[in-house]
Amino acid sequence: MDEKKLHKNLKWMTLSVLLVSIFIAVIGTSSNLYFEKIQRATAEEELKASTEVYKVQIQRQIKGYLNTLHTLANFMKIEEFRDKEFFFEEMRQFSKNNDFTSLYFIRDEQVFKITEDNYEVQTLREVKLEPEAIEVIEESWNGREGISDVFYDTYTKQNVMAFSVPIYVEEQVNGVLMVYEKLENIEEIMELASKSNQNGQLIIQMINEEGEFLIRSNNGIYKQKTDSIYHMDMKVLDEDVIRGVLKNKEQYYTTFRLSGKEYNIFFVPLEYHGWYLFCIEPTSAITHSITSMLNVTRVMFSTIFILGIILILYGYRAFRKNNITLMQLAYIDPLTGAYNITKFRKISEQIVGKASSYQICILNIRKFQFINEVFGEKEADSLLCYMAKIIEQQIHKEEYFCHDNADQFILLLKERSTEEIINMIHEIENKLGEFSDQYNQKYDISLYAGIGNFEGTKNQENYNQLFQNALVALKKARDASYNIVFYDERLQRDTQLKNKIESRMRKALKEEEFKVFLQAKTDLQTGKLIGAEALVRWIQKDGTMIYPDQFIPLFEQNGFCAELDLYMVEKVCQKLRDWLEEGKELIPVSINQSKLLFYRSDYIERLCEITDRYQIPPKQITLEILEGLAIENINLLNETLRRLHEKGFLVSLDDFGSGFSSLNSLGRLKIDELKIDRMFLLGIDDLEEEERERQKNIMRYIILLAKSMNIVTVIEGVETKENEILMKEMGCDIGQGYYYCKPISIEEFECKYL
């Protein structure tokens, strides 16, 4: 063999080996640096995600304590001390069921301490409370929820936290409810979180804004007992940086090394008292699989290039698979396998920001709670999974959907007509019926839906606006008799009007924009005026009117109707006093009273205070109530009626026959007057002969039954002479309706009748 050629080949071989070695070294080093970067990023994100989850759990636990106290506070407003033994027994049982160490009820300078065994009553001066407890009591006397720092309870001899809420009576703080909760309940959450961590090396601690430990994990890297993170012998964190973070209530992530081991640490503020949660976990524990892969990669790159490449690909695949798993946990609903609301919102915000041709459809199953209770949670979950599959079949390209919570699904639809959306919803509904048949459950599954679009909306590239529009439409669909509602300018106007009404109602009451209108009540036998009904009208300063059907349902929801009803009583009494002083003959006036007002403990006293102030005989006032009051507690209602009769007031049952009317209720209620709903007369002349006779017979027997109990009967909705003749023949006492007079202002009423 030619030596020259051999040297040349050897030279090339050496050069090739050198180049391959350099290449392997470069690839190995680059790969190593790349994976170390991924390792750190993964460690940071996983620790932050875990810490946020534990933060939510702890805050939810604390909020749960406060919600429990609010529930009890509402109970105490209702119960008060009507039965003292029953009251304290309920309090004691409540404390026991919720595992509170102590329960305190403070009112009128008295402190009621309720334990599992008994209760004690002391004055505020006598009772010995820890400073932390006194501080939260003062918070709640000022109308706020109170949460204390951790302190040692000398009674139970353990660390506790105090929680308190105000008790309101007529929007004024009337008392304070406070409980001691064992710190170990929150410690258990943290210990369970630490143990449930797949690596078992997570350390969870809680500190206050001064760096003092509130709760320490038993699984710690620092065993020395100390009261502050600043007092530890090992200095692994920059104290000035940590002080700045705690002072500014910021999140903070960093790493440190201890005993040759790298740790990740993340501080996150809680909502209460400047408390902080921080979690520590070894980097190797978070990214154990990636660390192993790096070691294998280093070994393989030092031996063979191909094996190195395979390992790198394998590592990439493993990393990618790990990220897919994390993505599923973060963005996939565990029950249905559909997107969750977080992922849906993220996609929708990106898409809607680029085009305004999208709509959001929110779907709910009507009476889903009934399905859950009757057929069981397992079958209800199966129904939701089945519904998710059906929706997935209905979704087009560039459209998305998610399962939000309970029975709610949200769909992002693109360029679909109204008819297409309605057909899609009906198709989903029909296929859900097939699910019911599969399980031999003959239950009609019905959906209701709100569809949000940008109609009448200025900002047409805003997902939040689109979603809010859908929610408005959904609420309308839930409360209405029809199941599918599209957002439109009318709904937008309704929403704006609702906001306007709620923002102006108290000022309007103060400025007397609510006016009393009167509608005459006529004696059907003599044709003479026998009384009137007071009806409210909202006439604004500029002369425009907001109609009753626009504000009364809203007032019934937000409770403002109670104030308005008493206002109407006062205005009527004021006018009756004017008529007396002018020498005019008084007529009885009927005034509607809401359920919320009727059950107030001071209701009758407030009424009497008004009639006494204007020196009006209570018999001139007829209080109109709805039958729904009797459904809840007829005995309690009758007791209120008895007290009203003792004071001289008359009571009328309004709109009888408009909904579910019970003859049993009519027989048991102690009323003076029965108002038959206008629906009995509405369109009666247009009915078939047989149906018209049935309608007449019903009215006839109602009137006869009322007369047998000495109850005066009033028919509403008299609009024609024929109506009047018919009711007169049936023996009805009083007629009311447009045939006689529509609701008119007091001034017009005086001119016409007085």
Key features?
754 residues; alpha+beta; 8-stranded mixed beta barrel; 24 helices; 21% strand
Question: Can you give a write-up of this model?
Answer:
Keywords: Cell membrane, Membrane, Transmembrane, Transmembrane helix. The chain crosses the membrane at residues 12-35, 299-319. Pfam families: dCache_1 (PF02743), EAL (PF00563), GGDEF (PF00990). One of its GO terms (molecular function) is cyclic-guanylate-specific phosphodiesterase activity. The chain has 754 residues and is an alpha+beta fold. The chain has an 8-stranded mixed beta barrel, surrounded by 4 helices. Strands 1, 2, 3, 4, 5, 6 and 7 form a 7-stranded antiparallel β-sheet that branches. The longest helix is centred in the N-terminal third of the chain and has 77 residues, at 3-79. It is globular, with a radius of gyration of 37 Å. The mean pLDDT is 83.
Summarize the structure.
By secondary structure, this protein is an alpha+beta fold.
Question: How would the blueprint of this fold be written?
Answer:
Layout: H1 3-79, H2 84-97, E1 102-107, E2 110-114, E3 119-123, H3 131-141, E4 146-147, E5 151-153, E6 158-169, E7 172-182, H4 183-196, E8 203-207, E9 213-215, H5 239-248, E10 252-258, E11 261-269, E12 276-282, H6 283-286, H7 288-303, H8 305-331, H9 341-352, E13 358-365, H10 368-375, H11 377-394, E14 400-403, E15 409-414, H12 418-438, E16 447-452, H13 463-479, E17 484-486, H14 489-510, E18 514-523, E19 529-539, E20 545-546, H15 548-558, H16 561-581, E21 589-592, H17 595-598, H18 603-614, E22 621-626, H19 628-632, H20 634-647, E23 650-656, H21 663-668, E24 673-676, H22 689-708, E25 712-716, H23 721-730, E26 734-736, E27 744-745, H24 746-753
Helix pairs in contact: 1-4, 1-7, 7-8, 10-11, 11-12, 14-15, 16-18
GO molecular function, one term: cyclic-guanylate-specific phosphodiesterase activity
Main location: membrane
Subcellular location: Cell membrane
